[in-house]
Amino acid sequence: MNQVMQGNLSIDFTQKNNQKNPPQKPRTQSTPRYQSGQRQNRRSDEPKLSSEAFLRHLTQKQTEIDNPQALIKKGEKPVRIGSLLGLEQVGQCMFMEYDQDIVLIDAGMEFAANEEMGADYIIPDISYIKKNKHKLRGIVITHGHLDHVGGLRHILPDLWFPTLYTTPLTLGIIKKTFDDPKEAAKIKYKIIDPNVDIVKLGCFTFEFVSVNHNIPESMALSIYTPKGLVFNSGDFKIDHTPAIDKPADLNKIARIGMEWVKLYIGDSLGTKKAWRSLSEKVIAKNLDDLIRTTKWRIFMATFASNIGRIIQIINSAIKYNRVIFLSGRSMVNNVEICQELWYIKVPQWYIRKLDDQINTLADERVLVLSTGAQGEEFASLTRIAKNEHPVVKLKKWDTILMSATPIPGNEASVKHMIDDLVIQEVNLITNDDMDIHASWHGNIEDHKLFLSLLKPDFFLPYYMAAAERFDHKKIWLDMGIAESRILMPNKNGQIIEMYDNVVLVAESKIRLDKILVDGKGQGHLSGEYVIKARTIMAESGVISLIFKIDTKTRELIGNIQIESRWFVYSSEVKTIHTQIVDFARAKYYDNSKKRMDVKENLKMIKEDLGEYINKIIGRVPMIMPMYVYINRDPQNPNWELNQDEAIVGMTLDEQGYDD
Which pTM does this prediction carry? Predict the structure, then answer.
């Protein structure tokens, strides 16, 4: 049963949530009673509290758990928490399960790395959820970034469009991710007000907590389960002076911490950075000063997902009578959503898509708000920097503001883009020059504050790969959390089990595939031929060999036809091609003497040819042997090729890449 309850209440949902402070036993007749205000004299035989004992009490740490299995009651059924995305990468998708109820929390995506060879992004493998979708009570979404909502357009149809529980801005962003408006119209949802709403989904009850991030309406989750209270931080930073938002609701977090948090699931990004994350108010002032004092055109590059920053920039631009030109589809989409929801309230003509009108306005009235802060190949700012943009040509002393820092792995791309900009003698300002960008996530002291307020029994570092999660673990060890109470599963698919008296990483796990989205295609990485083939071609090239075979004698007719791409340099082509053809012909006749059929013959040639090519050039390309039967029998002019024997390309299995 799914319910939304209104009211800003502190509710004791289970007796287990109060086991730290059990009710006092009734007084017995022998217990002395004292009148109000009466002094209670210490008994003469009662031990005094020494300074040593008091200090020992203050420094006492959590107890280690030597044998977690011994704390599980016989036949006890746990709450199961599984990560589908978030233990190996940036991105989040997890489920919580108990008996006949499952709830999903976020359903994000991860941009594909270079080793995925051209695939666009990775989405969660929901095969386990699909098998149990009759148990699914809903999907709770913490905020509108693609690493938390980007997978929804792929998984919602497979799950019969379960109800989403989220906020207006996040819902608007989710709908924009759908290519087909008819599919987006199928979304079922309930809008959440974190200040008043409490949602019951099966046996799980959700309370919502406003936190700061770089996008409005970000929430943490307090989840009351049959086995205790779970707190999920979502993506957060603590900003006491945000530019467009309210400060994080630390009062509510402190109150939840007093209700006994059994398990804290914490955002691990930012755990290497000392002190606290910089306030957005500082960034807003610096950007406002730059926009006010700059007399030339301004090109502002930031993440399209950094909606808080975008709103700051637009407000300052309007204040100083600049027209905002938007460049990049995601930038245009997000600004449109903010206008629809009144996060941006400016005259319509002040904001427009980038077009030729930029060249008709005075320089001091132009501000271009662009994607491309990460040096992406086809992003707007990258094309502008290379002088390849169809509309914009940079002028000397144009001001470029990079309100972002490179994501790990993008440093080289950003450096190339900066090189392209500086040779055009523009005025380039980055975060190294002044504070025009702040992290969206908490630094070390922010994480310590969350720990101090929540005081959890167990802790799961989440939402990042291993290095950041282990940095997060170190912070909590420093603050006195017992190591046995910090859960460190290594891979998505591993299960956390929460019992009455213990939380642990289960021995069992769910087998997950890495699901790649490639253009409009989608496929599994395990056993995936396409990505493996691209990798081989990118590193060593490709060779195709066509064997023309007599239908009757099975002899070769004419030369073996050879084609190659990205294989060897032009000066080597003739020599190496000749060697390969001679080797393949000799192998064909050797194998024919062993009475091999044609398919088996070519499969053996492919294997031997790989070893031979590796000897002569030191690498192995993708080898594609194919054959065609040719009828040379004039006595049978009506002979027709069998469909399987006409022209046979090697199957995936024959290629040897489907292992």
Answer: 0.78
**CATH 3.60.15.10, the chain: domain bounds:** 80-275+440-518
SS3 577: helix
- Backbone φ and ψ for 363, nearest 5 degrees, come out as -55, -40
Whole-angstrom distance, CA of residue 192 vs CA of residue 171: 10
Q: Does domain 529-655 have CATH number 3.10.20.580?
A: yes
Quote the tokens at residue 539: 């590193």
Q: Where in the chain is CATH 3.10.20.580?
A: 529-655
Q: Which amino acid is at 340?
A: E
Is-contact 584 606, C-beta < 8 A? Answer: no
Where is average pLDDT lowest: 50-54, 177-181, 284-288?
Answer: 50-54
Give me the torsion for CA of 567, 570, 571, 574, rounded to 10°.
Answer: 70
**Pairing assessment for the beta strands 323-327 and 427-429 based on DSSP bridges:** unpaired
Q: What is the pLDDT of residues 140-185, one digit of tens each?
A: 999 999 999 999 999 999 999 999 999 999 999 999 999 899 999 9
The label of the residue with tokens 């994480």 reads: 447
Coil, helix or strand at residue 646? coil
Measured from the Cβ of residue 191, the count of other Cβ atoms closer than 10 Å reads 13
CATH of domain 280-429: 3.40.50.10710
Fold of 80-275+440-518: Metallo-beta-lactamase; Chain A (3.60.15)
CA distance 2 to 4: 7
597-629 tens-digit pLDDT: 888 999 999 999 999 998 988 888 989 999 888
Average pLDDT, the chain: 84
**CA 508, CA 93: separation in Å to the nearest integer?**
19
Phi/psi region, residue 67 (left: phi>0; alpha: psi -120 to 50; beta: rest), is beta
Q: Which residue reads 């930029």 in tokens?
A: 358
Q: Where in the sequence of the chain do the CATH 3.40.50.10710 domains occur?
A: 280-429
Three-state DSSP class for residue 461? strand
Residues 6+ apart with CB under 8 A from 154: 123, 517, 522
3-state secondary structure 585-610: HHHHHHHHCCCCCHHHHHHHHHHHHH
- Which single residue is written with the structure tokens 């610096």? 286
| Three-state SS sequence of 37-97 | CCCCCCCCCCCCCCHHHHHHHHCCCCCCCCCHHHHCCCCCCCEEEEEEECCCCCCCEEEEE
Measured CA to CA, the distance from residue 486 to residue 488 in angstroms comes to 6
